[in-house]
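Entry 12.
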Amino acid sequence: MDCRIGCAACCIAISISSPIPGMPEGKPAGVRCIQLTEHNSCKLFGRPERPAVCSALSASEEMCGQTNEQALKILTEMERMTNPNK
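Predicted 3D structure (C-alpha cells):
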C-alpha cells in the first residue's frame, strides 16, 4: 500500500521522541508536525534530517484504514495503547 497523498495522519497522531528540525524535543501525540506543509506533505521526506521513526513507517491497511479519517482514528488508538504513561 502507498501512502495517501495529503493524509498525514501519522504526522499528527503519533508521538516522535527524537528531535525534528523546529521541534527539538520531538513531537507529542496529537500535535501536527511542524514539517508538514499546508497540503500535508512532509518537508523532510527523503532528507537525512527526517526522523528514523518516520522513515521506518510503511503504509498498511491495518494502520491506515480506507480513509484519512480512519487512519487518524486508528493511529490515535494505537498511540494510546502503546503509551507507557497511560
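Annotation: Residues 9-81 form one domain. The mean pLDDT is 94.
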